[in-house]
Amino acid sequence: MTDFSPYPSGLRLADRKVVVVGGGHVAQRRVPSLLAAGARVTVVSPQVTPAIEGMAAEIHLELRRFRPEDLDDAWYVVAATNDPHANEQVSAAAEERRIFCVRSDDASAATAWTPATGRHGTVTVAVLGNREPHQSAALRDDILNALRDGHLTTTGALDRTPGVVLVGGGPGDPELVTVAARHALASADVVVADRLAPRALLDELGPGVELVDVAKLPRGRSARQEQINELLVDRARQGKRVVRFKGGDSFVFGRGFEEVLACREAGVPVTVIPGLSSSVTVPGASQIPVTHRGVAHEFTVISGHLPPGHPQSLVEWPAVAGLRGTVVLLMAVENAPAIAEALVAGGRPAGTPVAVVMEGTMPGERTVLSTLGELAADLVAHDVRPPAIIVVGDVVRVAHPDRYAAPDRAAAGEGTAE
Q1: Arithmetic mean of pLDDT, 45-62
Q2: What is the CATH number that goes with domain 280-399?
Q3: Least C-beta-crowded within 10 Å: which of 60, 193, 312, 328?
């Protein structure tokens, strides 16, 4: 049979069923891009990575082996298991139903190929290198760098020095990742990724890059920090360039400096690329200021992973309650009712405005407006789940004056600050 060149086409998969068979790292790379395209994604696999498990609310997950009828009504299929026989079964079932199928193990046996893709603004770049994935990824990276930097460059210009690079990925939207962060990802031999790192960027990694999933699920599977430290050191000592890819900023409740100390102790070179912290970018993107002239002259960022009164808590909640400025709570959904109760007990009015921003900067973003006194009930009523940023203070009233009555107080300390 003649080996014809592929015919490029852009698939519009919004609200169309797409089936991914396999739950490993190949699937982990592909699923976010399919979700970003609006597809209704079904993942079929007896086991999945923690990151895929963390997408359970966005996908249809079948924890079992593949059945041919899984492809009924599907528009597109990805066979991404590590078993060639299983992938062949998927491919045969797709062929029988005239559905295009990508195979992760054997491109020559597939009816479709996944290009090396990347996005910049409204532009999608897709490169097919005739089954030469490294060539495709290299050209893709050059084009994206030219778009992002404003001039042409080459992959050889990237720093590939062995060691560890701590990269803050920002609040979630890939467009909010810094140019330096993108360059670090493009230079990586190994990427060690958190669940909250901008997952859509994982699909841009070169085919030879090792992806290590160290997701920490709320009340679920969680990689120990000691294991992560050992992994970073081990791969770097093998002469590899290791990118530790986190959400937000590595040093804002990200345990980033623990990883710096582990590298220093092991004699491993380590550099840091800061990221936009979700503590300010998520409220900002939601048009909620954390400070405002005459309203709040300070803001306090607190980890809410431990409730008030917990023996390991380092937060002086009575002192926090006595502050007049904004309080931003991270990792606090579970303990938010107890925190609200402590703030009211410490002197904050029960009517203090509260905004809860879920999946900030992402397509599923939504905001729940409440007060300290009503927060516990509103979290249940609106099915609030992590990740979410909670903003407490009169800045929420400034952002949403129609929701809250004007404060009953004398001058609010108006001045010329800021």
Answers
A1: 94
A2: 3.30.950.10
A3: 312
